[in-house]
Design a protein that fits this description.
single chain; 285 residues; alpha/beta; Spore Coat Polysaccharide Biosynthesis Protein SpsA, Chain A; seven-stranded mixed sheet; three-stranded mixed sheet; 10 helices; globular
Length: 285
């Protein structure tokens, strides 16, 4: 996974530490990628991501894709320098004042011109083969949405050898879910889908997390939701979600407990209206 190492020079760091040459390179690369008639719209959503957005955009700017694409940014009511980074890198972006991933993704949908949407999270880095691989998968007949897997950026507290074991078990979990309930395996950092049905459905905005899985669930009415296991589409992201659980061992333990408690979902297809945990609702009224 050494493809991402150069991006770490600006990832999780102040934009003031980044040489101006990097901003200019990203701006030049993105201007060459932008197409007025894209097949796919790459939508980057960001909320207070001044320390990680630059690395994300740098990786996107180096995409090697034979399909015409566009890259669009959404600034989700950030109070830091997120908007400034979009401006300095020449990314066409829009401000969404209503705060939530659902509102941000919906704004991206409104502005998108492509047949397909590639969802991008600002705290994630993408290999140059990502867009090409995901679009090729979306082009397969009967496909409504796809999702890929991800790795975590290693550090001294989360070394690569420990992460490898965790990711192996996580991918096994995702593979099992994808058979009957693929929407449960979807994560927005590596999710792509048809544009027009998604515009009709709209991302849910009343939940704190899971808007991506909810969209995938509704898109099953328009075609298959498939798991893309190719390394060419494997992204790498920060360990922020793991760190909230403590050590890698504790994170693994908590997820194993969740898997055991919800073992039924591996064997039974999700049907009917999705039920929300009260703690996940933004508006509980």
């Amino acid at each position: 996974m050494c493809w991402y190492k150069c991006y770490l020079s600006v990832f999780e760091k102040s934009p003031d530490e980044a040489p101006n040459e990097i901003f200019l390179e990203i701006k030049d690369n993105i201007s060459k990628l932008q197409n007025e008639h894209p097949v796919a719209s790459i939508i980057v959503i960001a909320y207070n991501e001044e320390q990680r957005l630059l690395g994300c955009l740098w990786s996107l700017s180096r995409m090697k894709c034979s399909y015409p694409i566009e890259i669009i940014g959404v600034n989700n009511n950030s109070s830091d320098r997120t908007a400034e980074i979009y401006e300095r890198t020449g990314v066409r972006y829009y401000n969404e004042d209503k705060k939530s991933p659902g509102h941000a993704r919906n704004r991206g949908l409104i502005e998108a011109n492509g047949k397909y949407i590639l969802c991008i999270d600002a705290d994630t880095l993408y290999p140059e083969t990502y867009a090409q691989t995901m679009i090729e998968e979306l082009e397969k007949q009967g496909t409504a949405a796809i999702f890929a897997t991800w790795s975590f950026i290693p550090d001294k507290n989360y070394p690569r050898y420990k992460m490898a074991g965790y990711e192996f078990l996580r991918n096994l979990h995702l593979s099992m879910l994808s058979v009957n309930s693929p929407e449960r395996a979807v994560r927005g950092l590596a999710f792509a889908h048809l544009t027009e049905p998604a515009k009709q459905i709209g991302y849910r905005t009343n939940i704190r997390r899971g808007e991506d899985g909810a969209m995938a669930y509704e898109l099953k009415n328009y075609g298959k939701v498939r798991f893309v296991k190719s390394k060419r589409a494997r992204v790498i992201t920060s360990t922020a979600t793991l760190k909230s659980d403590g050590s890698i061992s504790k994170a693994l333990f908590l997820r194993l407990i969740q898997a055991v408690r919800g073992i039924r979902k591996y064997f039974v297809k999700t049907k009917g209206k999705l039920e929300d945990q009260p703690s996940n609702l933004i508006d509980k009224k």
